[in-house]
Amino acid sequence: MQQISRMLMKLFQKARLEKPGQVDPRAAEFTLSLLVAMYDRSGTGYIKTRSAAAALISLSGDTLLAKYRAFFQFYAVPDGKGTLITRSALRSLLTDLNQILAIVGEGCTLSCVEVAVHDCFHGVLNAAIVEEKFLSWLKSEPAVLLWLPTCYRLSATEMVCHQARCR
């Protein structure tokens, strides 16, 4: 948790320099508290770096495609020919992302994670899939992750400014 805390301090310090006055000085503290609430409910003082990365990626302001690619990079395993994501890695990713919803009382059951893994690997004979298949599945907006594109679209519309006036 100390590593994550230091990383968050650096991250938000850089953000404050890039956007003066727009980043709360306690942002790192608040973010760490959120990560602890999501991933260290038993108070062990340990959070998996990969889990924290998944949460930060999903809550970032980046594009959906960039988020999806980052998920693949963090959860995929190297293979002799490239990088692949296994069923267990996808299960870990979905379980980690489900903790974001669980913190607000909206998490799904373990069975919905299993259904999503089965759906992603439908028709796949291998033990793992390539990035293109993974991205294609995510772009189909699986129910277990429907909140992610929805939140992205909501945040994207916040920046829209119309030059029309209503009467």
Q: Could you walk me through the main structural features you see in this protein, from its secondary elements to its overall organization?
A:
The protein is mainly alpha-helical and 167 residues long. It folds into 2 domains: 1-47; 61-166, Recoverin, domain 1. It contains 8 helices and 3 strands; from the N terminus they run ααααββααβαα. It has helices at residues 2-18, 27-39, 49-59, 64-75, 87-102, 110-120, 131-139, 147-157, and strands spanning 77-78, 83-86, 128-129. The protein has a 3-stranded antiparallel beta sheet. Strand 1 (77-78) and strand 2 form a beta hairpin. The mean pLDDT is 91.
Distance between the termini: 53 Å
In CATH, the architecture of the largest domain is Orthogonal Bundle
**Biggest β-sheet description:** 3 strands, antiparallel
The CATH topology of the largest domain, please?
A: Recoverin, domain 1
The computed structural class is mainly alpha
* Quaternary form: single chain
Structural shape: globular
| Mean pLDDT metric | 91
Catalogue the unreliable spans.
Answer: none
CA-based gyration radius: 18 Å
